[in-house]
Amino acid sequence: MKKLLSGNEAVARGAWEAGCEVATAYPGTPSTEILESITRYPEIKAEWSINEKVALEVASGASYAGARSLAAMKHVGLNVASDPLFTLSYTGIQGGLVVVSADDPNLYSSQNEQDNRHYARSAKLPMLEPSDSDEARRFAKIAFELSEKYDCPTLLRLTTRISHGESLTDLEERKMGPVAKKFDKNPAKYVMLPGYARTRHPLVEERMKNLKEFAETFAENRIEIGDKKIGIVSSGVAYQYSREAFPDVSFLKLGLVWPLPENLIKQFAGMVEKLYVVEELDPFLEDNLRMMGLALIGKDAFPICGELSPELVKKGVSGPDSVKEIKFDQTLPARPPILCPGCPHLGVFHILKKLKVFACGDIGCYTLAAQAPLNALHTCLCMGAGIGQSFGMEKALGKDAKVVAVIGDSTFYHSGITPLADIVYNRGKSTVIILDNLTTAMTGRQGHPGSGLDIYGRPSPVVDLEKLVQGLGVKRVAVVNPYDLLQLERVIKEEMEADEPSVIIARSACVLIPQFKSVRKKPVKVDLEKCDGCKICLQLMCPALTWAAKTEPGKKRKGHPLIDPLQCAGCEICLQVCAEAAIKREDQS
Amino acid sequence: MKPGSELINVLMVGVGGQGIILTSSILAAVAAESGLMIKKSEVHGMAQRGGAVSSHIRFGKKVYSPLIPAGEADILFGSELLETYRWLPYLKEGGKIIASLQEIDPPSVFRGERPYPEGLLEKLRQADPGLIALDALKEAVNLGDSRVAGIVLLGALSKLLDFKRELWLDKVKEMVPKKAVEINLKAFARGIELAK
Predict the structure, then answer these.
(1) Chains A and B: how many Cβ contacts under 8 Å?
(2) Which of the listed residues A217, A242, A257 is the one where a domain comes to its end?
(3) What pLDDT digit, counting tens, does each position of A27-55 carry?
């Protein structure tokens, strides 16, 4: 029986079929649905981990105890988890350990488009790359087997189009792996003191040699012979684009993208007249093939930046005239993602803008506040970076520089605790605003240690955020209602002036989670008699507020706002910014 | 169009929250159930926050790329007028358009910085003189729930594709919220009626 599954669902299915018992992740597009899908399988203990490093550490602990385990993350998440990853390469595993990296070519929802195939090479680990959902399922299973056979974690690399693409997938039954669950007190393997680690390194090199040999005969590295005038080496979704563009040429389709089967590649190169390497992002395969001494066409014909497409492959091989040029109308108004009506972040950014502060930002919905006309967030680097950066700015510019750090609750748990402790320890005076909406909103409202909900939606213990930051040594901790603009402005001003570090927790539930119901009020309305058309309410960027342009006899205004009662969440932020008191509650006259 | 005898590319576009993901999933399920190879690709994540959404659905005997090559969409299915027009370059010559008349102002328009573009429907009609344009939102509101607008459009789409009627109905029943099966079936039927 075949089922239509996304690549992410298929990885979950494959893990289940392989007898996986523990799965961990921190949510991150495009990888989030892997763990969400895994919760459908009661045999697997799943968790949202506090960050990717912890996710990999938990999964590796389970693996050390003999359980097949999986940790999933987006590409930049693997940066966070890279510390355990590189040394896991030395210790090896007991139960199979699979690390899924979902890369995001074209940055649909990411801060960079790094190519994580480089991790396989630098951490000296095998990496599989599926090209559709059924391969995602099968490769997940193969990944567990390779992990156990070669005593190392296996990397499974997806990209956005594989993670979120759907195709028909075979289904098989669950079969447990052969490794018994037990402690294995083996310090020479698991305690990476220099003396022990030194003895592990040669084993790593030996393993890679063995894996290279395996790659030569691995059935998922296959030559597909067609017209021999053109030979294409490819993997992942780039293989599908290439097949679409050139269904009849010859292919070397690589399922294992590290280590590479040098003999097989050379054999293929010898069979075809012209050799192409088609891959998304970096010239990873290309550089390695060139080191084998092969003449080929690669990134001189296909772009490094952005994602590929069948058209780009065709163009690269057959020239620019081979594809009908299509042009999008660039004059049309764009439709970028925006914050929701009633979003508790709207008021905070309105005040930060009013106070003309420099806001060191972070990663979450609130990063959208960087867009015009709000322009109220001024950095976004990586998870948790804003706190450390605000301290660095304070050091460079002095305490009087108007700088704050703004970070979401989930991001704070992920990577904000350590830089805050750093500020306290080093006598900083920074102001950190935690936008606490009680969820991981951007990726689809997943739980975190402060949310009170686990990955299954069951109640879980809650970290006391106020006590946590107090425990770090922050004496000034203020909890504010982000819908009360007067209070917000007063507290932010006070804390920026304070001669010590302070944390402002702006707490209110995300409008998309059930807890928002207690906050929601009736829609507000515009008093057309009073409105002078100043547009300050529109600067909030609330989608419920729209502008009706018109000229009216006897009125200076060139129009007035309208409030869509279907969209308005009744947060009453706009009511507070209006100097003419022209926005009212329904019951006000 | 006869699914199976040719590769069919349907591009579904709209605005986050309009239900493009649901309509594309229903179409994909119908194609899969008919025994065809199917691939579907869309972008989640940031796109959900009121941004533009697009879903590529391809089905036939053999499908490689999950993305429709530019200029090769057989059907452009749009639940919002500006988004439908934005993606018009993807339509192949002689391709079909199903467009909702619904207009949702993008941020620069709702903030009064610029007007909503005019004459979009006429431009779409130039590309496909037989275009099916429906006031899907009004039809949905008349039926009692604005959220079934996408299913009205899907009903119209079913007229262009030779899949069995029962299959469509089965998948609509299976995939819409349980409480709303009846109104969705009505919406689907209304779409078929309007596409005549």
Answers:
(1) 154
(2) A217
(3) 999 999 999 999 999 999 999 999 999 99
Give the pLDDT confidence of A225-271 residue by residue, as tens digits: 999 999 999 999 999 999 999 999 999 999 999 999 999 999 999 99
The first and second tokens of residue A446, run together, are 């997943």
pTM of the full predicted structure? 0.96
List C-alpha distances in Å: A35 to A8, A173, B87.
8, 19, 33
Local confidence band at A373 (pLDDT 50, 70, 90 cut-offs): confident
Interface contact A559-B114, CB threshold 8 A: no
* Residues A187 and A231 occupy one common structural domain: no
Mean pLDDT of A452-474: 98
**A243 contact B CB<8A:** yes
- Residue A5's beta-bridge partner residues? A167
Q: Structurally, how many domains does chain B consist of?
A: 1
Same domain membership, residue A529 and residue A457: no
Side chain identity, residue A468: L
* For testing contact with chain A, the best of B33, B103, B110 (most A CBs within 10 A): B110
Residue-wise pLDDT tens digits, A136-185: 999 999 999 999 999 999 999 999 999 999 999 999 999 999 999 999 89
Cβ of A168 within 8 Å of Cβ of B109? The answer is: no
> Rounded distance, CA A85 to CA A79, Å?
9
Out of A304, A320, A336, a domain closes at A320
The boundaries of the domain holding residue A375 are 345-517
Closest Cβ–Cβ partner in B39, B50, B106 for A165: B39
Residue B1 lies in a domain: no
> Residue B160 domain-assigned?
yes
**CATH number (domain holding residue B61):** 3.40.920.10
The ipTM, to two decimals, is 0.95
**Does residue A506 share a domain with residue A458?**
yes
A442 touches chain B (CB under 8 A): yes
Report pLDDT digits (tens) over A305-363. 999 999 999 999 999 999 988 899 999 999 988 899 999 999 999 999 999 999 999 99
Q: What does the longest C-alpha to C-alpha distance in chain A come to?
A: 88
Nearest CA in chain A to B82: A332
A window 450-479, beta carbon within 8 A of B: none
CB atoms within 10 A of CB A586: 11
Per-position DSSP letters for A523-542, written without gaps between them: PEEE-TTT-----GGGGG--
Whose tokens are 């459009």? That residue is: B153
Q: Does residue B115 lie in a domain region?
A: no
How many domains does chain A contain in total?
4
Full domain range(s) for residue B80:
8-107+122-194
- Interface probe for A, chosen from B27, B38, B41, B86 (most Cβ of A below 10 Å), is B41
Query: Is residue A283 located within the same domain as residue A211?
Result: no
Residue B89: its chain A contacts at CB < 8 A?
Answer: 326-329
- Residue of B32, B45, B49 with shortest CB distance to A30: B45
- From the list A166, A326, A329, which residue is nearest B70 (CB)? A326
CA distance A157 to B48: 24
Is any Cβ of chain B less than 8 angstroms from the Cβ of A334? yes
> Does A502 share its domain with A541?
no
